[in-house]
Give the backbone structure.
Amino acid sequence: MTTNLQTLPGSSENVEAPGTPKKHRTPRESRGTLSFSRRARTKALGKHAVLIITGAVMIYPLLWMLVSAMRPNDLIFKDPGLWLSHLDMSNYKNGWSALTHPFGHYLLNSAIVVLGSIVGNLVSCSMAAYAFARLKFTASKLFFGIMLLTIMLPFHVVIVPQYVMFSQIGWVNTFWPLIVPKLLATDAFFVFLMVQFIRGIPKDLDEAARIDGAGHPRIFLRVILPLMVPALATTTIFTFIWTWNDFFGALIYLTDPDMFTVPVALRAFVDSQAGTSWGSLFAMSIVSLAPVFLVFLFGQRYLIKGIATTGIK
Amino acid sequence: MSALGELSKMKRRTGPKSAAEKRDDRRDNKAAYIFLLPWLVGLLFITVGPMLASLYLSFTDYNLLQSPNWIGLDNFARMLRDTRLHNSLGVTFTYVLVGVPIQLAIALLIAMVLDRGIRGLPFYRSVFYLPSLLGGSVAIAILWKQMFGTTGLVNQLLAMVGIHGPGWISDPKTALGSIILLHVWTFGAPMIIFLAGLRQIPVMYYEAADVDGASRWQKFRNITIPLLSPIIFFNLVLQIIGSFQSFTQAFIVSGGSGGPSDSTMFFTLYLYQKGFGQFDMGYASAMAWVLLIIIGAFTAVNFIASKFWVFYDD
């Protein structure tokens, strides 16, 4: 019943559907009696009340953090409200230079890791997905099954030997341990996402290209890749958010403050200030969340389609 | 739709091949393995290789400085005696078994309220989804640490109605609860999966039930739940696997200690302390395999139980 939820370009209405008429409503509206529509309206009002209250409770902490970062430090422990009597940006100034390096240094480090990871995932996952979705080869089912299983594998079970391996080749305190696995398609969810997508592209297109004499590299680059841009966009956005937020990997591999990414820098900040400068801590937390928020604003369509089709978060 | 669906489908597909399929059996092995090369190298060196290596290390006393010595089942015997480890299992189980059902129940409830063509759906959906994207970050864990502190936001709000709240994260009785709440806060991702699933339920079922005069509860119990059961199952498996691996929130909120009095010492946090704090890597590897087996067992039980309650339409 859910197999038709593919990541086809056209199937976004499946999830989005803001403009399509809602079938559920039609029988009710067609009756059209006054008392009924009044009852329907009361019901809708009740639903909106539930949604608005739940939403407000969920978003309140975020708004409060945003406001508190612009308040003098002592107010953070006194004022639970959102009213800002006067704007105080000193928390941002102090937070920016509170650690060994200015905070921009950590943002840059994170950006490098994120960029490397995105490129890695796009290249390696799309190649693997093309093979799984379009090519016939020995043991393809076995490998596909293994690929699906690795999605569910807890990373703890590989982290110790991985650490030993990377430390022996001198990669601790470099970005390589965070980027190289992405170049090797170890984020198998994206392989799966792309396989699903490619399966939705008509095979006639490949056949036509093949008749024109194109080989697999050409079909992949010229036919499939241009058509799977939505899946590539979803991959890019999720890779961005996950890599930007990744704490465990950075905690293990990056111990030198020069190499800190944003999450480990924030952690060092929490540990160093011992509850004295929550304002600047909040300010830098907001700086660290801002890119994720922006990606969310502009990439929402792909994010929502992505989780609705593959169930990744 | 899902990786889980694919896995269960794979079993069914195997059957005798038709003549047409056999004719179409031209293989492009060379091209395929070239395209798969990065993935195969990753599988070997990043996934399967390290997995087997950690299985080996779990039978050794490896500490990163000296070469590993085979000590048989000593690590596992030590685990049986390690009361801090037992406690960490309890903490993790509580987190998973309390946090996941509450999170999924709220996700389903809100998805159902959102489903019936409500106005402003994209706006509400964004509001509920946003925390899922931010929830895993260090920044939000920092916010939580403040909010549930002795003079944090929660207690400030409680004070306005005259309640003197405890220091939620400094009290062993409530510290884990605060972190579970953070998990519940991220119900947006499963909610979106529920929403997509609800869209697939044909309206005519509800219309027919309306004609028969079914109550709202009857419709929920006899239409929504059975038809949504594959999605519920999918969310359940996914959230359980993910929650067992939670780490960042407990680490930041407790300052890496798992305190107060080990009340937020997640299994993963203890594993980190053993492996990367004390470099007791043999023991950490053994713990990782125990975690893998626990997650595998939970998933297997889920799959077996699903035969009794998950309803497949096809």
In short: The CA atoms of residues 209 and 307 of chain A lie 32 Å apart.
